[in-house]
Amino acid sequence: MEQFKLKIIELLKEDARRTPALIATMLAAPEAEVAQAIRELEEEHIIVKYATVVNWAKVDDEKVTALIEVQITPERGRGFDAIAERIYLYPEVKSVYLMSGAYDLLVEIEGKTLKEVASFVSNKLSPIDRVLSTKTHFILKKYKQDGITFEDHEDDHRLLISP
């Protein structure tokens, strides 16, 4: 991929609200060229979605997020893909990753309550053929997501002693 498009991707990843005009100014390039590059990136499904990062701790609508380690037996001829595809089709599932190490898949899900997440694991995920075991970890607090920190630091006027 050409360097110009990579720079555009990086700028949009930092802030998807940047307009082609602003990006053109930042890159010292014609706005039409930037707009065309963005269109091409979208058409090629390189840019798939423009997303918003939400600090759910400040919103009244509570959500429960869990990371689930899943051990599976790969399917002959399809490996881990067939099971990953079954899992990512559930609307509760936000992300699925093939991992190295002690487990095979890492599944991120979101529910309204702990009970809803537990129900997903016991009624939908665990019964899938070739799923050997699951280990669920609940997110208690998010400090940083997609490069954005969520910590509110009140003004602290004390001297910094160590970094």
Structurally, the number of domains stands at 2
Q: Based on CA inertia axes, which overall geometry fits?
A: extended
| Helix count, DSSP H or I runs of 4 or more residues | 5
State the name of the first-level CATH class of the largest domain: Alpha Beta
Average pLDDT figure: 90
- Which value, in Å, is the CA radius of gyration? 21 Å
- What is the N-to-C succession of helices and strands? HHHEHEEHEEE
Could you list some keywords that capture this structure?
2 domains; 5 helices; Arc Repressor Mutant, subunit A; Alpha-Beta Plaits; alpha+beta
Task: Tell me briefly what this model is.
The protein is α+β, with helices and mostly antiparallel strands. It has helices at about 5-15, 20-25, 30-45, 80-90, 115-125; strands at about 65-70, 95-100, 105-110, 130-140, 145, 150.
Characterise this structure.
The chain is α+β, with helices and mostly antiparallel strands and 163 residues long. The protein has two domains: 3-43, Orthogonal Bundle (Arc Repressor Mutant, subunit A), CATH 1.10.10; 56-142, Lrp/AsnC effector binding domain/regulation of amino acid metabolism (RAM) domain (Alpha-Beta Plaits, 2-Layer Sandwich), CATH 3.30.70.920. It contains five helices and six strands, in the order αααβαββαβββ. The two termini are 39 Å apart. The mean pLDDT is 90. Residues 1-81 form the HTH asnC-type domain.
